[in-house]
Amino acid sequence: xxxxxxxxxxxxxxxxxxxxxxxxxxxxxxxxxxxxxxxxxxxxxxxxxxxxxxxxxxxxxxxxxxxxxxxxxxxxxxxxxxxxxxxxxxxxxxxxxxxxxxxxxxxxxxxxxxxxxxxxxxxxxxxxxxxxxxxxxxxxxxxxxxxxxxxxxxxxxxxxxxxxxxxxxxxxxxxxxxxxxxxxxxxxxxxxxxxxxxxxxxxxxxxxxxxxxxxxxxxxxxxxxxxxxxxxxxxxxxxxxxxxxxxxxxxxxxxxxxxxxxxxxxxxxxxxxxxxxxxxxxxxxxxxxxxxxxxxxxxxxxxxxxxxxxxxxx
Amino acid sequence: xxxxxxxxxxxxxxxxxxxxxxxxxxxxxxxxxxxxxxxxxxxxxxxxxxxxxxxxxxxxxxxxxxxxxxxxxxxxxxxxxxxxxxxxxxxxxxxxxxxxxxxxxxxxxxxxxxxxxxxxxxxxxxxxxxxxxxxxxxxxxxxxxxxxxxxxxxxxxxxxxxxxxxxxxxxxxxxxxxxxxxxxxxxxxxxxxxxxxxxxxxxxxxxxxxxxxxxxxxxxxxxxxxxxxxx
Lengths: 314, 231
What we know:
The complex is a heterodimer. Chain A is mostly helical. Chain A has one domain: Formate dehydrogenase/DMSO reductase domain (Formate dehydrogenase/DMSO reductase fold, Up-down Bundle). Chain A has helices at residues 17-42, 48-72, 81-84, 91-112, 120-145, 156-185, 194-199, 202-227, 231-267, 276-304, and one strand at 4-7. In chain A, helix 4 (91-112) packs antiparallel against helix 5 (120-145) and helix 6 packs antiparallel against helix 10 (276-304). In chain B, a hairpin with a 5-residue loop joins strand 4 and strand 5. In chain B, the strands form 4 sheets. Chain B has a 3-stranded mixed β-sheet. Chain B has a two-stranded antiparallel ribbon with strand order 2-3. In chain B, strands 4-5 form a two-stranded antiparallel ribbon. By secondary structure, chain B is an alpha+beta fold. Chain B starts with 5 loop residues before the first strand and ends with a strand. The chains are: A mainly alpha, B alpha+beta. The interface between A and B is large, with 41 and 55 residues.
């Protein structure tokens, strides 16, 4: 018979939904930064307005995430201590430095993007901002993955999930924001006619499809790794699944990965775009679902990773 | 002369599970309600009549490879020269990463203001019949909330809202050449404390005599709280 263990430690999740919001909003921001930079370097002229939207929302999304993290911190007046103490062994300390730099430079980059005209200085800064954004995106996964006392988090899959999540939600966030902008402010002349505009988005479709499919595969390997790993990891998975499994499965994987995958593949297939307005609406809906699912995944992972287990004794 | 390297050995054969260490720690360190710097795991195995019961006292393991220290973004958690894992309340931002990193559940977070338990104890169990805890305390003049000023010599006597706190091996007592209060209070001398760098010290002698175990060895944290023998 299994031992019955009682150990009264502090109850409740240590990191709550505000941390999930930080990781989610930060991820969308990071993805939007990278999307903007790639579009500005490789995209046609008609997508420079989309790049502009992405570049402008990105730093504000990262700041939004950090604002939620600041709300969560218990002793807010001491946050400056991170700036005056060297803690190179702490990933969070590195995260603080990199995100501070990303926000500062990202705001300058967004300011430079107010004018869509080609700008060499902006492109140079974009490279630096892109590198920082990539680091922050990886940091969001590593922050959890280094906590080896939480088997749900402590794996390479967590880092890969963060990278794929910022890729999908970043692109989706930028698309949703830009579609809203197009709805409110109208399309500009440089964006051209709708059929060509939608058709030209095929590389974006490919990236989204690939990232969504990889996320599904990553979830599968993560589940296999935990299920057939140590007893502790299998117990952690069972405990997390019983509490947050339905949310992850229905909202995260179902609504956030499978449905957008089908929508994008169906409406944005290989055939010539015959109904561009409908296709654009489908892209908008799929992007919205990716965002909803992206938050559900972050929330389920953050909270599920903290479901307490019976402590192992000797 | 090498620096001290403090450690504790808990002799589970001697431990009777009286929890005197838990109570002693609370009074010495002004530990809040429902916080347990000194704690215990209860483990029951088997079915009647073949039941095995284990009482395993726990506290901060003052790990050599302390994950709370490695992860702290402000160096609020740090290792002292004599190997203690200590907490600088003035640097703590209350991010609680140390709590997440610690596999032993021995770090606590103050989400309430100090003494709020006392301040809020103003509802009688039976209205118009019994007194509230606050009334009893005030009318009898007892010093509630209890406060030991000695604690405040090396660490805030009462920790502020929004930061974490944990066992310090009673560093304020060590500074005076005294033993941790849980060690002094153990009626069966099950807790053996001293310098692990000294081959003649009581913990080194105990470790030489009995095979030691540590909690969750596989985590690689190298705890400095060792368990010997069994009940």
